[in-house]
Amino acid sequence: MTPSEIERLEFSSGGVASWVSSNERHRNWPVVYVLDDARSAGVTSVYVGETVNAGSRMRQHLANPAKGQFRRVRVVIDETFNKSAALDLESHLIRWLAGEGRFTVMNGNEGIVDAQYYERDLYRESFRDVFERLRADGLFERSIPEIENSDLFKLSPFKVLTPEQAIAVEDIVEGLLEDLTTASPSASVIEGHPGTGKTIVAIFLMKLLADIRDYDDRDEVESDSMFAEFFVPENRELLRMLRIGLVVPQQSLRESVKRVFKKTPRLSPTQILTPFDVGESADDWDLLIVDEAHRLNQRANQSSGVNNRRFIAINQELFGRDDPHKNQLDWIRARSRHQIYLLDAAQTVRPADLPQEVLRTLTDDARSTHRHYPLSTQMRVRAGSDYVEFVRALLRGELGPAERPDFGDYDLRLYDDLAHMQREIIARDAEYGLARLIAGYAWEWKSRRDQNAYDIELDGVKLRWNSQPKDWINSPGSLQEVGSIHTVQGYDLNYAGVIIGNDLRYDPGSRRLYIDRDSYRDAKGKENNKQRGIFYSDDDLLEFITNIYGVLLTRGMRGTYVYVCDPALRAYFEQAIVPREGEPAQIRNQPDSA
Fold this sequence. Notes:
The protein is an alpha/beta fold. Helices cover 37% and strands 18% of the residues.
């Protein structure tokens, strides 16, 4: 393909008029353009668009006060462009700009597309050339891999939805608007395995609802979008005074989402809530979207005495007394009229998490009202949903020799030397970024009190647990540390090196996995619930611990490397993981990378 041209013009009536008259393609050809603000030393906001009549579209933008801040236009012109290619490049630029984080991207997210079209792969190769030329012109600072490895990119509301995600979003918004019209309460459940994009749906919904609420009649809504019909004055009025919040129970993920909201127009970090924020709120919420709802707490001994007292005070305020059977799900219901829960019951990892029977009732109630939306398309692990099912069957002790599906080029390996696996993870990080060691909670956290101490010592390797609880994956030094379930749940890695400790073992005689209670070092992970008279058996803990490893083993997008401490469990993993005859040997232990 011939290289694209990038033309620059002043965003003014005179600048546009002169540019339009100079070439017929400026008024009758598919192009993609970027508006930015050149008035100050630092570029702060951008808008990306596509059109087949650039002259007419520029005049529309000039007449729109919302675009008055912009002073410059870059137009991408390519003699091979068609409408589909232009839409695709527009979507890519929006996502890259949002992911880099230097700008406030002023677009809505209703027009992000991922359609198939003739020679799409060739066009997408040319997009990288466009990116590099825009980067040379100062619009980008970081490379595409650096941008795409960032949380701002991964958690951005400017995402291409899978068909099932898009249908769920459309049905939920349609139902919510109807419920607001009839003043009816509602509860919806979006359920999916790891990597099906539950958090993405939550963030996308927050942005879409804000765009519908705040759009101006002069805004350019993508007419081909399945959400375009929502952008009408009556829906704007329905949402105008709505108080909407996103509840994120996990501390680390919550901080990352706040950064995304800080960079997203019409969203605010103050909308990101803990369950305690909801319970203590002075005012009710119209809509609460609850991400990782399986991590909401039941009444149990909290992480601090302060939170124990807060739990009691919230129950007393909301229900008139401290009822130990009331949980954080009850707080959500008491403080909001409409709720959207995103969950996976197989990702409960602590006794304090909502009990399975509560989650089952929640999903059953949603099914009965036709507000249950299952997600199955795997968006994280390149091996697809078969890999997630394989991991869960493996952790149930159900897999024998030759039962491993074909995972294509997904890089799954089993190691018997931790030093070897560590070197390979470091090599993958140098190649792709975002390769980390993660482990089950089978070692005491000595380094929390003594920074000179090591927590994990195996095969001559000395390692420390994550030195910070918030955004550990992106923190300095994380490549030399080991992350726990509490720092990685909800995140993507390119490669995950998973250490399975002696908390999980295998009995070859009964062919079943079991737990070593003394080797499980998360005090809160095995604490009995004396307030409610609940005592957790070894079988109960086995479910939590296998759920933890199920989460850890599904973090890696490109590959997962595994080291198993228990010899019997390692032998069981080996017969399930090693390649069958005729398959590539990439998943056996290999020499170090060159």
